[in-house]
């Protein structure tokens, strides 16, 4: 099968959406499918996303999206994001009567509101509802998200859950070889692990009065500000990868995930 994936989030970005899509493409190709990816880094004129310059968004992408879509001739189209590329692909699919699916990876209205307080949540939901309800199927992460979006007027919802790499993330890594990545810290260790950005609501965690130690593992645009504000009150390790990342999960006592947008 020839599958076209259209996404405004792709490498070199590092986030959950990119990770999910990268692994999906990998598994689809292992299964013998041919996957074509349309992303901002593929020859589009781009600009930095306001408040998040590490993310580049495509400008005036419709003509190039149309060219790529026609050349590839996909059997299936999946539009992963609600950005300029997603809207361009959606418009072309509707124009040509071509079925497509979409993904709802995060609470986009809450994400936008966290960065731009003047944009009401109601506007955000009107925007994403219009985008997604035109698709044949809206892929959501959990049954609870399906119920939530149904209450917001979305339809054609289906659950596409996320897996865990059990070869990398294993309980038996805890204190491997008698070592502890948090050995110098008082216990218990409360760890927030992931991208460090305003919409992740990490300050709610850092403001808690907790025994032991608070640790933030990861990198992102909010890291410098949080390190300065919470110096001496929390530990910031920066980004970790591979087994080192898995050890930071396994050696912690409590995993804390305060995001209100995921």
Describe this structure in words.
The chain has 262 residues and is an alpha/beta fold. It folds into two domains: 2-159, Rossmann fold (3-Layer(aba) Sandwich), CATH 3.40.50.2000; 171-255. The protein is built from nine helices and twelve strands. It has helices at residues 16-30, 62-72, 84-96, 108-115, 121-132, 143-151, 202-206, 223-229, 242-250; strands spanning 2-6, 34-38, 46-49, 52-58, 76-79, 101-104, 137-140, 157-159, 189-193, 213-217, 235-238, 254-255. The model has no long low-confidence stretch (mean pLDDT 95).
Structural class: alpha/beta
Spans of at least 5 consecutive residues with low confidence: none
Determine Rg (CA atoms, Å): 20 Å
Helix content range of the residues, please?
25-40%
GO molecular function, one term: glycosyltransferase activity
Protein name: Glycosyltransferase family 1 protein
InterPro entries: Glyco_trans_4-like_N (IPR028098), Glycosyltransferase_grp1 (IPR050194)
List keywords for this structure.
262 residues; alpha/beta; Rossmann fold; four-stranded parallel sheet; 9 helices
Topology:
Blueprint: E1 2-6, H1 16-30, E2 34-38, E3 46-49, E4 52-58, H2 62-72, E5 76-79, H3 84-96, E6 101-104, H4 108-115, H5 121-132, E7 137-140, H6 143-151, E8 157-159, E9 189-193, H7 202-206, E10 213-217, H8 223-229, E11 235-238, H9 242-250, E12 254-255
Parallel strand pairs: 1-2, 1-5, 5-6, 6-7, 7-8, 9-10, 9-12, 10-11
Antiparallel strand pairs: 3-4
Task: Summarize the model shown.
It contains nine helices and twelve strands. With 262 residues, it is an alpha/beta fold.
């Amino acid at each position: 099968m020839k599958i076209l994936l259209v996404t405004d989030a792709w490498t070199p970005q590092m986030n959950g959406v990119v990770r999910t899509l990268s692994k999906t493409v990998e598994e689809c190709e292992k299964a013998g499918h041919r996957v074509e990816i349309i992303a901002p880094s593929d020859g589009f004129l781009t600009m930095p996303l306001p408040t998040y310059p590490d993310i580049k968004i495509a400008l005036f992408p419709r003509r190039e999206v149309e060219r790529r879509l026609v050349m590839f001739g996909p059997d299936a189209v999946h539009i992963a994001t609600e950005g300029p590329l997603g809207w361009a692909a959606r418009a072309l699919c509707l124009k040509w009567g071509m079925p497509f699916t979409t993904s709802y990876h995060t609470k986009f209205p809450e994400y936008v509101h966290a960065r731009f307080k003047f944009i009401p949540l109601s506007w955000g939901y009107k925007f994403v509802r219009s985008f997604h309800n035109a698709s044949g199927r809206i892929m959501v992460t959990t049954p609870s998200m399906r119920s939530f979006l149904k209450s917001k007027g979305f339809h054609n919802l289906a659950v596409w859950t996320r897996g865990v790499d059990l070869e990398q993330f294993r309980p038996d890594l805890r204190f491997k070889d008698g070592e502890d990545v948090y050995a110098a810290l008082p216990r218990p260790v409360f760890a927030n692990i992931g991208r460090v950005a305003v919409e992740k609501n990490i300050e709610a965690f850092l403001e808690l009065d907790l025994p032991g130690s608070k640790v933030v593992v990861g990198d992102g645009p909010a890291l410098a500000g949080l390190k300065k504000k919470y110096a001496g009150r929390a530990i910031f390790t920066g980004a970790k990868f591979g087994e080192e990342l898995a050890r930071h999960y396994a050696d912690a006592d409590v995993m804390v995930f305060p995001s209100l947008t995921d």
